[in-house]
Design brief:
The complex is a heterodimer. Chain A has 5 helices and 4 strands, in the order ααβαββααβ. Chain A has helices at 3-17, 31-39, 57-63, 90-93, 97-100, and strands spanning 42-50, 69-76, 79-84, 105-114. In chain A, β2 (69-76) and β3 form a beta hairpin. Chain A is globular and about 45 Å long. Chain B has 3 domains: 2-129, 2-Layer Sandwich (Alpha-Beta Plaits); 142-377 and 546-605, Rossmann fold; 387-538, Jelly Rolls. Chain B is 18% helix and 28% strand. Chain B is built from 12 helices and 29 strands. Chain B has a 7-stranded parallel sheet with strand order 8-9-7-11-13-14-15, with helices on both faces. In chain B, strands 16, 18, 19, 21, 24 and 26 form a 6-stranded antiparallel sheet that branches. Chain B has a 5-stranded antiparallel sheet with strand order 2-6-3-5-4, with helices on both faces. The chains are: A alpha+beta, B alpha+beta. At the A-B interface, β1, β2 and β4 of A face β10, α8, β12, α9 and β16 of B. β4 (105-114) of chain A pairs antiparallel with β12 (295-296) of chain B, so a sheet runs across the interface.
Amino acid sequence: MTRRTALLFSITAMVVLSACSSEQPQAHMNKNTMQQEAQKKVMAGEYIVTLGKSVCIEDIKQQFSAYGPNVIEDLGRGRYLIHLEQDPGLNALKKINCFKASTCKIQHNFKYKAFGKTGDQNELPLLNRRY
Amino acid sequence: MKNKQIALSLATALILGFISIAGASGPLPIAAPDASQANTIVDTGKTKPATLSTSARPTMVEGEILVTFKSTLSSSNVDDMVNGMGVITAKKVGKKNVRLVKFSGNMSVQQAVNSFAADSNIVAAQPNYLYYPNAVPNDSSYGQVWAHKNTGQTITNGSYLTNNPGSAGSDMDTELAWDEITDCSAIIVAVIDTGINYTHQDLASNMWTGNTNSGWDFVDDDNDPMPVDGQIHGTHVAGTIGARGNNSVGVTGVCWQIQIMALRALGSTGGTTSGIIQAIEFAVDNGAHIINMSLGGGGDFDSLFSDSITYARDRDVVVVVAAGNEANDNDTANASWPCNFTQDNLVCVAALDQAYALADFSNTGTTSVDVGAPGVNILSTWPGGVNTVRSTGWTQSGSGWATTDSCTRITGSPVALFNPINWCTTPNSTYANNTDSTISKYFPLNDLLGAEFSAKAIINTEAGYDFVRAYARANGGNPDSTTPLFSFSGTAAGEISFSLENCLTRFCTVGFRLTSDSSVVGSGLALFDMEIQKIEYNSSTYESINGTSMASPNVAGIAALLRAYNPGYSYLDTVNAILGSGEDTASLVGTTTTGKAVNAMGALSFINVPTGVSATLP
């Protein structure tokens, strides 16, 4: 990389990524990754991002722009629930510098359920029960 | 005077017995003989005869006394002396030179006390007093709540068939604990679950009053944690912790009075990290002392969920969770979160049956699951009931439809709706070509938890061309302009049902529509046994169900008792008392970290090792 190229890159990065520089991974849908993650009981395409210092949610949206990010909810304490229309998988997202450098954190939005005993008629929701 | 002083000091030592061994860790009796019992202690050399109290029920065990030998005597010396006294048996009691002596029935307890007290090697002799639980609530279904008092009763309608009835005594000794405390009204327990029917007769007066509706709904993001989707789980969990005690109705929670904070983080399809962590932080930030989470998931380590448990720990909050119902070993690849989190403010609970065998569905884990608690056939509060209404009086638009309450082609059907009009009387009849005919009925479905239409159906139409469809419209009128809730073309017989959850209004209309093209017809359709099931909130329903979800709130309730009884207890004191005081239980050895079933009385009487205490020696 020449000095000029490096300068251009850094300017571009500052403009696009604001306080959080990164190299963006290729945006493409990895179906295998999505299926594996679904099996791990996560909400497909949903991630919780915890912002680091000097990073704002707009920076994250910029970095995720190739994946169609939508901020669903501000969870407080610098955390945001986001949905990616095109989900490249957690491992790909972690390659973004902000996460790679541990400046920010990202994780799945995991699914949980009530521990009613499976198959117990009485523990089904009222609407699904038969009398 | 001297004797009196000695007697007083002995009585005091008994009453405040824990002081003499402060620093030791383990269960100790917290109840002490009352004043009348104290003066029955006979000191060596005393001439004052013991006075034994009398009352309607026995106050002491006939044929038994407790004898304290001098501390300078070795245990073997004591055994030799006892054997020379001609007693029937003498069992060592506790760590000191105390023996439970059984003697011949020819001698009264008073005579035995006086006789033994005369021996110079004996410090004191006293009756073996009887203690009785006094705090038995008057709640009408209390006898079915075996977790508090297992008498070997059969739990009516219990769906867990093994060990029903179970073993008398396999319970949490809650009645003994209630002799000390029933009121946890200073304690806030957050129930992070599917929401709570906070209007239930056994919960309403025990709900948290910190905001309008006693909590928050993180599913719908509003301030009403009512289980609007018909989920029953949270209401049941809440009742186990704190159904109002001694109010003459229903069941009894571990705490008779308490503040239950309802946090709805699970909907009809469960919940997610995002809702749960917000619920935990809401609970902590609004003063909860204990959080119950009868929930879990089996994904990868959830860092933010773990951080929230730590957030609670750092603010002195105990978190009680369920082990899970997959019969898994959580220590293997089947980790269950939050059970497998390792923070020391977290207690993970397995489920026991009525004989204290491990419930066949309960998860285990010698490093992750801490204790067991009653978790099958648990009777508790229920958010509502089902009111079934047979539907008659349908109104048609167009032609072809008919109704009857007597159709010879359908056995036992009180109501039938059919097309063509002679479907019942003429089996070979058919509907017309180019038909577009509807029939509908108005149902008031406001103020319900939910509603569902169901019917048995026999359908025969030209497949792919002639259709039967069902509709519902919330604001009345002909419903056929809405999106169909049911659509079928072809031949079938069976049951159809569809939810009316989007039609819970005063003017919900439900309708059916038959359409046909210009060629080929069938025999049409008949609907019978048509019902609207109205899922209604009510405040007086109870059900018994199973799960580690039902075991966890028993422990959360004990944690509340502990913190109410010991306002200075930290989260760690509370957890230590629960884990350190339980009842050794064979089914939990090798399946949990402690091998113990929780015990309310044991937890209250557990003495935590003092920490942070210093003394200056002269």
